[in-house]
Design brief:
Layout lengths: L2 H5 L10 H15 L6 H8 L3 H4 L6 H24 L7 H18 L1 H9 L5 H26 L9 H13 L13 H14 L33
């Protein structure tokens, strides 16, 4: 059998299509760790024999690569769109939209993104995924720099650091967000972009004009004097 044939995805049997097998594999990788999950574990979780699993997928490595590509492809699309200059859109606008869309990718592909954040470069597939992550970090930092250069963001914080902090905030969602919970993707993306770009402090009211008359100081409130008839 040729290498191409061995590495090609196989058609699943009725009731167990490729997507079902991949989703179950990602769940197990996240629960047990990639190295701690065997093809036998996956077969049992899907309800068929170990030998039958190879009618669905060629290898565990193939499943890992598919899952990591799912997460990375979504984030790459976000930065591809953010990198294109759109008439009327500033670098700040594109950066803010990139953060918002990154949240949506994480929520839509949370199991795959969770797996991506746990890889440590223990195999060629993981090394390739980490290389792609570093490329995304660099592209995101470049977008931050564009916003600094146009005067939309402060310049006293390194764009690389800003990029890592923004991604760190987005990625932290995998630790507590639960799909189907009370907070949806729109609420999450609104909250994160607001905190990241607008902060938490309320904007203070405009100070009064310099020639405005000073207000008299308020006298401290005192409790009413007790009546001599009160007990």
């Amino acid at each position: 059998m040729s290498d191409a044939a061995a590495g090609a995805p196989r058609r699943g049997r009725p009731g167990h299509d490729q997507e079902t097998v991949l989703r179950k594999a990602v769940d197990l990788f996240n629960e047990q760790g990639y190295d701690g999950t065997s093809m036998g574990d996956l077969a049992r979780a899907l309800g068929f024999s170990k030998s039958a699993i190879y009618h669905h997928v060629p290898s565990k490595t193939h499943l890992l690569a598919q899952a990591l590509d799912e997460a990375l492809d979504g984030l790459t699309e976000v930065l591809d769109e953010a990198s294109h200059e759109v008439a009327g859109a500033t670098a700040y606008d594109r950066l803010r939209r990139a953060v918002r869309m990154s949240v949506e990718v994480l929520v839509d592909h949370q199991p795959a993104v969770t797996l991506l954040l746990r890889v440590r470069g223990n195999s060629d597939v993981e090394v390739a995924a980490l290389r792609r992550r570093r490329d995304l970090d660099a592209r995101f930092a470049a977008l931050v720099q564009e916003a600094v250069d146009e005067g939309s963001l402060r310049s006293d914080v390194s764009p690389v650091l800003v990029s890592r902090l923004l991604f760190g905030m987005v990625n932290s969602l995998v630790e507590w967000h639960r799909p189907g919970g009370p907070v949806d993707a729109a609420q999450l993306s609104d909250a994160i972009t607001t905190i990241a770009f607008d902060g938490l402090a309320l904007v203070p009211a405009d100070p009064p004009p310099a020639d405005a008359p000073a207000r008299p100081a308020a006298s401290p409130s005192r409790p009413p004097a007790a009546s001599p008839h009160q007990s």
